[in-house]
Write a structure and sequence with these properties.
With 121 residues, the chain is an all-alpha fold. The protein contains 4 helices and no strands. The two termini are 22 Å apart.
C-alpha cells in the first residue's frame, strides 16, 4: 500500500513539474536563450509530456484489467524509452530551472518505464 502511494505521488510530482517546465519555458525569463536552444528545450518538454501521457495510459489500462497485462506493451516501451532518454539530452540546451526540470523528469520517467518493463517480464 505504501509503495502504491509513493508511486502515485511521484507521478503527480512529475506531472506538476512538467507543467511547471512548460510554464517557465514560456515566460519572459528566458529571453536571452537563442531560438534554436529554446526549440530543443521545447522538444525535450514534448518528450516528457508524451512519455508521461503514455505511462499514465498504460498504468490506467493495467489498473482496469485484472491480469495487469497491456496489449502491445513491448511496442509502447520501445517507443517511449527513447522519448525519455532524448528529453534528458535535449534538456541540456535549456537554462536555469526548466533545464533541471526537463532532465530530472526524463530520468525519472526512464526509471519508471524500465521498472514497469521489468515487472512485466
Amino acid at each position: 500500500m505504501f509503495e502504491t502511494a509513493a508511486y502515485v505521488s511521484a507521478l503527480i510530482a512529475i506531472a506538476g513539474s512538467v507543467f511547471m517546465g512548460w510554464r517557465l519555458s514560456r515566460s519572459g525569463r528566458l529571453r536571452e536563450l537563442p531560438t534554436w536552444r529554446r526549440r530543443l528545450l521545447d522538444l525535450g518538454l514534448i518528450g516528457n509530456t508524451a512519455s508521461l501521457t503514455l505511462l499514465l495510459a498504460v498504468l490506467f489500462q493495467m489498473m482496469l484489467k485484472s491480469e495487469g497485462v497491456v496489449a502491445n506493451f513491448e511496442l509502447l516501451s520501445r517507443v517511449s524509452i527513447p522519448f525519455t532518454v532524448a528529453s534528458v539530452v535535449l534538456g541540456v540546451f535549456g537554462r536555469r530551472l526548466p533545464r533541471i526540470l526537463v532532465i530530472l523528469n526524463g530520468l525519472l520517467l526512464t526509471f519508471f518505464w524500465l521498472d514497469l518493463a521489468a515487472s512485466s517480464l
